[in-house]
Design a protein that fits this description.
Largest sheet: 10 strands, mixed
Helix content: 25-40%
Number of helices: 10
Bound molecules: flavin-adenine dinucleotide
Order of helices and strands: EHEEHHEHEHEHEEEEHEEEEEHEEEHH
């Protein structure tokens, strides 16, 4: 059977463009509500920004400083849900904020931040924050500098080591519930009647086969590619996003906990984290208006991270760097410095018949998908409740009923 054969089988309720975590989440949510769903992805599922992320499931301490309280609260609530529905993929992770040469004012600010973070995660299963002296800090993190060390703050968030798997499991469950999902199929253009999208023109990259994908409603979930896709589909230039690049380095094991550090280069917050037996360092945040498909770490990005880590972990310069990876953030367009742009998502009807998701984090993907699916179901007259907050992902099994923190820690 050709890969696009199923696309010709009449009209779908919803056709989703983009098989990253957001598109996958929407496909699962809609399929579980009984909608007939199709999803097409031009590359590997989860191979876009989803695979270029720092892999944290977190409210984001940094966003407190930006006063994005609703974003932090949503993501802390979603962190709990993901620990419950995907305990095999999302694991608790202890973070440390080592105080190295910082002022008493900085430490006081961190104390207030951690108190607020705990208050906003009032429904958490993870331990609350605490403070450590130098001996405790160095016992866990022997490679940390002793120069100017003044203890550390500790708090918990979570990590998804393989966000691509989180994405795939959403798609597997969507397919089990009748969704037609295809990768290496790119949406090239749209057929419009009176400005309303009626069908999408899809091309299979392997076979060269082409098909018209008809649906009652369409979803643009192409993340950092949004403006390019929207321009191709509507014929009018779209400039809704600000896209910024972030990179990571993978090096030999250096840390035991997830370290939150502030770069001496520009004061930005970044992470040095244990990941799959190695150390993962990132990220950067620089405007990147080019095609996200070609994003790569360059020498300047790598040197910035090495210079940022060096004062805290001097051994970094002697460790081998195994690999780099890069991703492009899709941020709802705002002026100001890259790091000051809100990470809050937006769901809009960007042209008649097309619902678009702009921005959003992996952490909030389930809630974003629910919001989009609620809007789509109300338009289509589908009267079914969202199930994704309660139903474990395929590999989550009955573990989702266990003690969250205990289960993940013991494994
Ligand atoms: C450096 C960095 C660090 C981050 N760290 C975190 C973190 O720690 N925690 C967190 O929660 N979030 C983090 N994020 C944010 C998070 O990664 C993204 O918000 C999320 O992955 C976006 O998912 P998405 O599905 O919208 O986009 P994507 O994963 O990019 O998916 C969009 C898909 O659309 C496809 N596509 C594009 N055009 C077409 C077309 N014409 N036809 C078919 N398919 C098409 C693309 O191939 C792509 O796979 C980070 C982001 C970056 C860049």
């Amino acid at each position: 059977m050709s890969s696009l054969a199923d696309m010709h089988n009449g009209t779908f309720d919803a056709a989703i463009i983009g098989g990253g975590i957001i598109g996958a989440g929407i496909a699962r949510d809609l399929a579980l509500r009984g909608a007939r769903v199709a999803l097409v992805e031009k590359g590997d599922f989860g191979g876009g920004t989803t695979s270029g992320s720092t892999r944290l499931i977190h409210g984001g301490l940094r966003y407190l400083e930006m006063l994005d309280f609703s974003l932090v609260r949503m993501d802390l609530r979603e962190r709990e849900i993901l620990l419950r529905i995907a305990p095999h993929l999302v694991k608790p992770l202890e973070f440390r904020i080592p105080f190295v040469g910082q002022s008493a004012w900085f430490r006081a600010k961190m104390r207030v931040g951690l108190l607020l973070y705990d208050a906003l995660s009032y429904d958490r299963s993870l331990p609350g924050h605490r403070f450590l002296d130098n001996a405790e800090t160095l016992a866990d993190e022997p490679a940390l500098t002793k120069n100017g060390l003044c203890g550390a703050g500790s708090y918990f968030d979570a990590q998804v080591s393989m966000p691509e798997r989180l994405c795939l499991e959403n798609l597997i469950d969507a397919a089990r519930h009748g969704a037609v999902v295809r990768n290496y199929c790119e949406v090239r253009s749209a057929k419009l009647t009176d400005g309303k999208v009626r069908s999408l023109h899809v091309r299979d990259a392997d076979s060269g086969e082409e098909a018209e994908l008809s649906a009652r409603i369409f979803v643009n979930a192409t993340g950092a590619w949004f403006d390019r896709v929207q321009t191709a589909l509507s014929g009018a230039p779209s400039r809704r996003l600000r896209t910024t690049k972030g990179i990571h380095l993978t090096c030999a094991p250096l840390v035991n906990k997830a370290n939150v550090l502030f770069s001496p280069v520009d004061g930005r917050l970044f992470f040095v984290i244990p990941l799959l037996g190695k150390t993962w360092i990132g990220t950067t945040d620089t405007d990147y208006p080019e095609d996200p498909t070609g994003v790569r770490a360059d020498e300047g990005d790598i040197e910035y991270l090495l210079r940022s880590v060096e004062p805290f972990f001097p051994a970094i310069r002697s460790l081998p760097i195994y690999s780099t990876n890069a991703g492009v953030r899709a941020l709802v367009r705002q002026s100001g410095s890259e790091s000051s742009v809100s990470r809050l998502h937006k769901i809009e009807e960007t042209q008649p018949g097309m619902v678009s998701v702009l921005g959003g984090k992996i952490t909030g993907y389930r809630a974003i998908a629910q919001e989009a699916a609620d809007a789509i179901c109300s338009t289509l007259g589908i009267n079914a409740a969202c199930q994704t907050g309660l139903r474990p992902l395929p590999g989550g099994g009955s573990a989702a009923n266990g003690s969250l923190y205990g289960t993940a820690r013991e494994s």
